[in-house]
Specification:
heteropentamer; A alpha/beta; B alpha/beta; C mainly alpha; D mainly alpha; E alpha/beta; A: alpha/beta; Rossmann fold; seven-stranded mixed beta sheet; five-stranded parallel beta sheet; 15 strands; elongated; D: mainly alpha; ABC transporter involved in vitamin B12 uptake, BtuC; 14 helices; globular
């Protein structure tokens, strides 16, 4: 009995090895020449990692629009005499697919940098791989903790919640006088859990008070229980740290039972669906963002006009602007380092100070965490986000 | 001498008394048949003995040890195995595996042995295989050992069920309508097999409707009607028992009101 | 009495939510009663109903009742088609095959909807103006009245249908003894189709009600709602129509109760904890009949 | 020669050398093939380990579980806590992950395995939801934010060696007294207890081993992605693993292997289908069930089929082709 | 009225009936007797469409129409009612509802005459009209099963073991009712293991053994036939 089986085992391991060999051979296409080489006239490849399908597709698609703008602009003159080529892959918002794609981009497509997924979770996973493979990755949207700490190749160009959330709370409590806060967290959303911590600290710091703390979950649709409790607590303002979909639904339910307070939240509320779903019920909601097309600087205005021309009069959003800036930052570093070798230009990139991007002024601190100025406070008015206030951030 | 003893056994389902104060002894080494019209409670008796049902009243003992309340799977361990009225084979498994599974209660190997495959375990496996093949040979199924059980003919399936019950060398073998669905030739073969089983020292207790078979092989016959034991004795005695004839052929009391 | 008041308020919330679960649970229970299979795709039929309601509501001529009726009819057809295509060929196979087929249908339907309407949550238009009725300190919205009312009416209608019509009687007969029913001249295939139609119609109606009440529809909304409704059906005793109603209301109320006692983050666990406990101590559910072991 | 091969020590050595060969060959391969494909291979391996576990529960013992992802998550978190918080070596972490999942499997198994069929399915499903909610709300798991800073210690050779080990164990179990008892339970519980099989015991055994495999898979998964969140282990993950088992053929180890390869690489292969991918996937499940209700290799005696195909090609094939 | 020609039936690979041929003419009571497992119930289940013949040559003719392979509900509509073995009443329905189910195959509502006919034969059912069928005694359930079948106004009633599990007194009562039903104009095909009873009541009978008809003839003649005794008592 055993003899047969051990034979089978050997056979199996051979078959398996063969299978893997075959799949390996099938994939070894004519490999691209190493791109770090300054002599090369091959295009410099930049990878795009993000969702083009799935439930977070909207972020990825908008980031991609900004990226394409940047590629077009850079290729007019070239970078180090070379063209920029974008390699796009869709991770559908799935972590395991993101791992596969990051590996593919680095090993198969030989990209020098990846403009990364706007979500924190996937950025962490992809960042770990990119850092170990010495490829620069820049997230155009992640705001959670423990991202750039992964290593010297990991960057992001976003407005951090740790800066924006306190500024927002200061405005809400001091200027609006809304001291009694109902704080709602989406418990299965990492962004929301992290942001709520910052919110609740800055509410207290600014002399406010959390009169009721409630929890929901992403994809929940029934909020009647929580809203009933919030109504009983009678807050001045509802602070919600999650995304726009749930935000809109919460406000609809709140208005339904007669709550008058408005909602304040983070950049997770930025999304046209907030108004599409929420309609009149989200009127007056306040959120912050690292970008606003209103009151633009001359550079930003140029970008907005070009964007509108290219995309059918659509206004760029936060993700488009940050995607654009991310690639521009990388290109600038490559130019300054006079090398497309990530090992070299990552240091130049880390030195960036007061870069005037279309989404604001960007400075990388020590440890590559960005400081962006200003914080744009936006308010929903007439079904649109309109600029409420620009709060400048001081670089220490 | 008495191997299995049923003492005042009664079981009620809701309002229905399926088995009613039955007293019965199964003696060492005999072939005992339990007969009776449909719905008389025969299969229920087997289910009581194998602890699938628990009696409402009364006791069942095997060599003095009570079977009431014992987990069903321990009954085989104690030496009672059975076949079922509606064949219950492991249909997707091979004939050999079916019989090997019948050996389960005589094996010891556990998970650790399965994973270490120490010589002791392999010896046990070899023993099980040997026993299983012997049992298949005994029931004339050895040539079908690699077939899937569901691909056997009806008669073969009935025999396979017996082989499975027999392989653990039980003290008592319970056969629930072993001849049902068999053709006359198969029945003759079956009778011979049951006799040979008894000759190896295994007591046979069977429920059967085929009177030729029952009369042909049983030493004693017990007759159940409406859950009550109405007769007990040798085939000759039972055949001439008035109560039995009435139970089977009808009393003859019924007279048609219409002249035909 | 603010606490009592709050509790009353939450009770109404739970009742509204529970009504929606109960409507979906009815579909599970009816199908299980008759062909003994779990139609895992009910959650997705519920979702399709919600979208059908949405599409209808976006055309200008439609009021709430037309949307409800339209969605019900569409999901009825959908349910019957699913049964014919994906389940009927498997009626004699193992339960597992049928279950996997149902899971396949459920993945198919939700992905199809993503394809058709996009992955994002869509707001549900207001089909009528909101009004709040104050009864002392305690208030109820017109939405809640409509949800509970319509759900109640549908359940009453189903009860009357099953109890007093010829088809209803045939359905009950099938669930008690399918062979005997066919000997009475009952066309089993037709009964199964009608069962799927009614069950799916109820799920579709529940979809529209959920759309109105939650203000939102979303391609994946069926999954969790379906699971909870299934839990409700099992809780009440699968196969039992009053059981499904009681189970649905119980799950809805427990969830809201969880929120009331400051355990909102555990609310999804509540439904399933209760379910498991009930299964362990009364495996046939609250209203279920104990099955006899046959040998 | 035959005698030599029957010696236990020789067999152990043979087995160890197979493992060593796997480890060696895979570590050579891993330098040759591109990381992208390597990673797909790695995920195939991880899914296969978990699917083999579920195959033992559902395919062999016939107990439908819809909560496999829960055991995967228990393994993932337990191993991550072990390696990160307690600095234990990676392989010990994997073992702890497996043991934790197996232990919980036993604890859950005792009450729930009294349930049968659909009831068991829904109970395991409910249990998985409870576990997920629990992990979302625990401090040590860092809730929804996710568990960070796990070393990416999982390598292709390690996964493949564990795969081979798992396959061996599964083959051995299936061909032992235990395995036969489990198969018997799947086929007919009443007949099983009539031949003396303690059905509860073997069901729990299958459940424990299956959960152990899920835990090991989860541990390997955690040390691949380096970062885990409760949302990674939802109901659909359980369905994914179940689909592997069912598609390949319930109870068939070669079937499970094929299922794991096909379904894990499917998202990559079906990439051109982009948005239609899941639609096709759903349809595929339905179609396979209708035409092969027992899965691709279900009911096919592979050894017999191959033998017949090679030697007596004219004879009708055994199997379920009705 | 009913004619079976060379009917074969198999369960999977197992053959249960081997070319059965039998005939029932209008107005008679025909009995099908034989030991358990001989294939009596299988024959009846095949006639009423619950089972399908396994052979293309098998023919079942009812009222000059071929009915093999037709769904049971269509056969009921043609006027053939089958009272299955073990009664199979709907336990969670009232007696009244069970009777209504019996009339399911007919268009429109059953009229009072139908109920009166059932009450005439089974006065006991009238007393229990609101009771759940599951709570009736065995004999009452048998009456209900028969009454239920009568609601379809069948021209042919087939009965499977009406005496099973009933006390002798009840058996007599039931059999007298069967006669009454026949006198009132319903043809009857009866399966019964109690041979005396069956032969006493019927005009003609067939004896079934392991899926084959081994004897047939007038009931009076068969009652005297020693072979019957043998096939029952194994003499």
């Amino acid at each position: 009995m055993f003899r047969k089986k051990s034979k089978a085992l050997v056979a199996m391991s051979i078959i398996m090895s063969a299978l893997i060999m075959v799949s390996g051979c099938g994939a070894s296409k004519p490999a691209a020449t190493p791109t770090g080489d300054a002599e090369s006239k091959e295009p410099i490849k930049i990878g795009f990692l993000g969702a083009k399908t799935g439930d977070v597709a909207i972020y990825g698609l908008n980031t991609l629009k900004g990226l394409n703008m940047a590629v077009e602009e850079l290729n007019k003159e070239g970078v180090l005499g070379r063209q920029i080529q974008l390699v796009e892959e869709d991770n559908a918002g799935q972590k395991d697919q993101a791992i596969n794609i990051t590996n593919k981009l680095i090993s198969q497509d030989k990209v020098v940098a990846i403009v990364g997924d706007p979500t924190t979770g996937i950025t962490r996973v992809a960042g770990t791989i990119a850092n170990s493979k010495k490829t620069v990755i820049m997230s155009a949207g992640s705001t959670g903790p423990d991202v750039v700490e992964i290593g010297p190749y990991v960057f992001r160009d976003t407005l951090l919640d740790t800066i924006a959330a306190p500024a927002t709370m200061k405005y809400v409590i001091e200027e609006k006088g809304w001291k009694n806060v109902a704080l709602i967290t989406s418990k299965n959303n990492d962004y929301s859990v992290g942001l709520s911590k910052i919110f609740s600290k800055s509410i207290v710091d600014n002399g406010g008070k959390v009169v009721i703390e409630e929890f929901i979950q992403d994809k929940d649709t029934d909020f009647s229980g929580q809203i009933t409790k919030i109504k009983a607590a009678n807050p001045d303002v509802i602070v919600f740290s999650g995304y726009y979909t749930e935000g809109a639904l919460i406000m609809k339910k709140a208005r339904e039972v007669g709550i008058k307070a408005v909602m304040v939240g983070g950049d997770g509320l930025q999304g046209d669906d907030l108004m599409k779903i929420g309609g009149a019920d989200v009127e007056g909601s306040i959120s912050y963002a690292g970008f606003s097309p209103e009151q633009p600087t001359p550079d930003t205005e140029k970008f907005i006009n070009a964007f509108k021309a290219k995309y059918n009069n659509e206004l760029p959003d936060l993700f488009a602007a940050q995607g654009y800036d991310a690639l521009m930052l990388i290109a600038k570093a490559i130019k300054e380092a006079k090398s497309a070798d990530p090992e070299k230009f990552k240091d130049t990139l880390a030195q960036t100070k007061n870069y005037e991007g279309v989404s604001g002024t960007i400075t990388f601190q020590e440890g590559r965490e960005p400081i962006k100025s200003p914080v744009y406070l936006l308010e929903v008015k007439g079904g649109k986000f309109t600029l409420l206030k620009k709060v400048p951030v001081e670089v220490k | 001498m008495s191997l299995l003893t049923l003492n005042n056994v009664t079981i009620r389902f809701g309002g229905l008394t399926a088995v009613d104060t039955v007293n019965l002894e199964v003696k060492q080494g005999e072939i005992l048949a339990l007969i009776g019209p449909n719905g008389a409670g025969k299969s229920t008796m087997f289910n009581l003995i194998t602890s699938i049902y628990q009696p409402t009243e009364g006791t069942i003992t095997l060599e003095g040890k009570s079977l009431v309340g014992v987990a069903t799977h321990k009954i085989a361990d104690m030496g009672i195995t059975r076949t079922f009225q509606t064949i219950r084979l492991f249909t997707e498994l091979s004939v050999l595996d079916n019989v090997k599974i019948g050996c389960h209660c005589r094996g010891k190997a556990g998970l650790l042995q399965a994973l270490t495959r120490l010589p002791g375990m392999k010896r046990e496996e070899a023993e099980i295989e040997e026993k299983a093949i012997k049992s298949l040979e005994f029931l004339d199924l050895a040539s079908k050992r690699d077939e899937m059980a569901k691909n056997l003919s009806y008669g073969e399936q009935r025999r396979l069920e017996i082989a499975r019950a027999l392989v653990s060398k039980p003290k008592i073998l319970l056969l629930d309508e072993p001849a049902a669905g068999m053709n006359p030739q198969e029945k003759v073969v079956l009778m011979e097999m049951i006799r040979r089983i008894r000759d190896t020292g295994i007591t046979v207790f069977l429920v059967e409707h085929d009177m030729k078979l029952v009369m042909g092989i049983s030493e004693r016959i017990a007759v159940l009607d409406y859950g009550k034991l109405i007769a007990e004795g040798t085939p000759l005695e039972v055949r001439s028992n008035k109560a039995v004839i009435e139970a089977y052929l009808g009393s003859g009391k019924f007279k048609s009101r219409i002249r035909r | 009495m603010p606490i009592l008041n709050n509790l009353m308020q939450q009770l109404v919330n739970g009742l509204a939510l529970g009504s929606i679960y109960a409507l979906i649970a009815l579909g599970y229970t009816m199908v299980y009663g008759i062909i003994g299979m779990i139609n895992f795709a009910y959650g997705e039929i519920f979702m399709f109903g919600a979208y059908a309601g949405l599409v209808l509501a976006l055309t200008n001529y439609v009021n709430v009742y037309v949307a409800l009726l339209g969605a019900t009819v569409i999901t009825m057809v959908l349910g019957v088609v699913i049964e014919r295509v994906a389940y009927k060929p498997l009626r004699r196979s193992s339960r597992l095959s049928a279950l996997i087929s149902a899971i396949g249908v459920s993945i198919f339907l939700s992905s199809l909807m993503v394809r058709m309407k996009g992955p994002n949550t869509r707001g549900f238009p207001k089909l009528f103006e909101n009004r709040i009725f104050e009864i002392g300190d305690f208030q109820i919205t017109i939405y809640q009245i409509v949800i509970i009312g319509v759900a109640g009416l549908l359940m009453l209608g189903l009860h009357l249908f099953v109890s007093y019509t010829k088809m209803g009687r045939a359905m009950r007969a099938c669930s008690q003894d399918r062979d005997a029913a066919s000997l009475m001249g009952v066309n089993i295939d037709r009964v199964i189709s009608v069962t799927f139609a009614i069950g799916s119609g109820l799920a579709g109606a529940a979809g529209v009600l959920a759309g109105i009440y939650f203000n939102a529809v979303q391609p994946y909304m069926g999954l969790l709602a379906g699971l909870k409704a299934f839990a409700a059906a099992v809780l009440g005793g699968i196969g039992s129509i009053p059981g499904a109603m009681i189970g649905g209301l119980m799950i809805g109320l427990t969830e809201i109760l969880g929120i009331t006692v400051n355990l909102s983050q555990y609310k999804d666990a509540f439904a399933f904890t209760i379910l498991i406990l009930v299964l362990l101590f009364k495996p046939s559910g609250i209203m279920g009949r104990k099955a006899n072991k046959k040998v | 020669m035959k005698k030599l091969l029957n010696n236990w020590i020789v067999q152990v050595l043979l087995f160890l050398s197979v493992l060593a060969l796997t480890a060696l060959s895979t570590s050579i391969i891993q330098d040759i093939i591109p990381p992208y494909l390597l990673m797909i291979g790695l995920f195939i391996g991880i899914n296969l380990i978990m699917a083999l576990g579920l195959n033992l529960i559902t395919g062999v013992t016939g107990q439908l579980s819809l909560g496999h992802a829960a055991f995967m998550s228990i393994g993932a978190y337990a191993s991550a806590i072990a390696t990160v918080n307690y600095d234990l070596p990676f392989l010990i972490g994997v073992l702890i992950g497996g043991l934790a999942a197996g232990l919980i499997g036993i604890i859950i198994g005792f009450p729930t395995l009294r349930l049968t069929g659909d009831y068991l399915a829904i109970a395991t499903l409910g249990f998985a939801e409870i576990v997920r909610v629990q992990f979302t709300n625990m401090k040590i798991t860092n809730g929804a934010i996710g568990f960070l800073g796990i070393e990416g210690s999982t390598t292709f050779p390690i996964v493949m060696t564990i795969v081979v080990l798992t396959i061996c164990c599964m083959v051995w179990i299936e061909n032992s007294r235990n395995g036969r008892a489990m198969l018997a339970i799947r086929e007919d519980e009443i007949a099983s207890s009539a031949v003396g099989i303690n059905t509860t015991l073997y069901k729990i055994q299958a459940f424990a081993i299956g959960s152990f495999c899920a835990g090991v898979g989860g541990a390997l998964f955690a040390h691949t992605t380096t970062f885990i969140q409760p949302t990674d282990f939802g109901f659909l993950k359980s369905v994914d693993i179940l689909s592997i088992v069912v598609l390949g053929g319930l109870g068939s180890i070669p079937g499970t292997i094929i299922g794991a390869i096909v379904l894990t690489s499917a998202p990559e292969i079906l990439r051109p289908l982009a948005n239609y991918r899941m639609i096709v996937y759903g349809l595929l499940l339905v179609v396979i069930m209708i035409f092969r209700p027992y899965g691709l290799l279900g009911g096919v005696n592979l050894r017999q089929a191959v033998r017949r195909a090679l030697m007596i090609p004219k004879k009708k094939q055994a199997g379920r082709g009705e | 009225m009913l004619k079976l020609e060379k009917v074969d039936v198999s369960y999977g690979s197992i053959k249960a009936l081997h070319g059965i041929s039998l005939e029932v003419t209008t107005g008679e009571i025909v009995a099908l007797i034989g030991a358990n497992g001989a294939g009596k119930s299988t024959t009846l289940r095949t006639i009423s469409g619950l089972l399908k013949p396994s052979n293309k040559e098998s023919k079942i003719t009812f009222k000059e129409k071929q009915i093999q392979g037709i769904s049971p509900h269509k056969i009921v509509e043609m006027g053939l009612s089958h009272v299955p073995e073990g009664r199979r009443v709907f336990p969670d329905m009232s007696v009244y509802e069970n009777l209504l189910m019996g009339a399911h195959s007919r268009k429109g509502k059953p009229d009072q005459a139908d109920f009166d006919r059932v009450y005439h034969h089974f006065p006991r059912l009238k007393e229990r009209i609101k009771q759940l069928a599951g709570t009736l005694s065995g004999g009452e359930q048998q009456m209900l099963a028969m009454g239920r079948a009568l609601m379809a106004r069948p021209s042919l009633l087939i009965l499977d073991e009406p005496s099973m599990g009933l006390a002798p007194m009840l058996v007599e009562e039931i059999f007298h009712i069967i006669e009454d039903i026949n006198v009132a104009g319903t043809t009857i095909l009866l399966v019964e293991q109690n041979a005396h009873l069956a032969l006493e009541i019927s005009n003609r009978a067939y004896v079934l053994e392991t899926g084959e008809i081994v004897l047939e003839g007038m009931a009076k003649d068969l009652a005297k036939n020693e072979d019957i005794r043998k096939s029952y008592l194994g003499e």
